[in-house]
Amino acid sequence: MKNWSGDTSSPLVSILCITYNHAGFISRAIESFLMQEVDFPYEIVIHDDASIDGTTEIIRQYQAMYPHIIKPIIQVENQYSKGNDIFDIIKRKAIGKYLALCEGDDYWTDPHKLKIQCSYLDHHPEIVVTGHNACSLDSGGNIVVASRLPKKHQRDYKGEELSAGQAWMLNLTLVCRNVDFGYVPEKAKLVNHDKFLVSLLGSYGGSHYHPEISPACHIKHAEGAWTGIDTAARNEAQINSWFWIYKYYSRLGMHEYADTYWSMYLRKVFAHSSRKVLLREFLIKMLFAREIHALIKKLK
Length: 300
Fold this sequence. Notes:
Elements: E1 13-19, H1 26-34, E2 42-48, H2 55-65, E3 70-74, H3 86-93, E4 98-101, E5 106-107, H4 113-123, E6 127-131, E7 134-137, E8 143-145, H5 159-163, E9 175-177, H6 194-201, E10 206-209, E11 216-219, H7 231-251, H8 255-271, H9 275-299
Parallel strand pairs: 1-2, 1-4, 2-3, 6-10, 7-11
Antiparallel strand pairs: 4-9, 5-11, 6-9, 7-8
């Protein structure tokens, strides 16, 4: 904090950290936030969703050491199980001009990350979000995936590409402008919000990829919100995302984007449905169409 300039009560960036039962990981995440070498104030907003493994106590210890930086939201009841949007809860607490995202079982490795990304956003008003690469580690700290971001997605995107779901950006690397999206009812229906967030940001500008920032680290473990679920559940979450993003753009009358997400939804459904199921559904639709046709002829 001795290198910070300006009003320390008005952070330039809010680091948003969502955590639940991450006792074995949360310290490393917080340390990676605290090691950032910047000349501007920042805050760390941590949402603990009623953890029962000691995560809450660890957060309290850090809060006691850094009371002006760490601002926890400690829930006594699990909000995710009640269907509440955790990202909206934590975002409402953030007062920074920019938001940096990282969950409690991920961490950053580059001490200059925030300075690089915030500086870029400062000097490029046409850009709404920036990101970089990340790797995946097993619970023992061994690299299992050196690059989580495919080479073809290590690039900048136009806002239209972000909105249309053409971008692949890693949530734990993002720094974006603190945009007020207003009330978006479709968000409450989503299982995974990452794709929707990037799509919503596309209405406010493009993105930039930072190859110069060291990769962040995602830890794969059995209790992980994403890595801890099986392939079928992941596919269902993806299908859920495409459907509700389609509903959002359809409600707004933005039919080009709506059609794009509807096509993505259908492709995902067909790809993970058996031929037997698809044939059954086709026959049901055909029989229904014949009944409607017969009814119309009678009415004539």
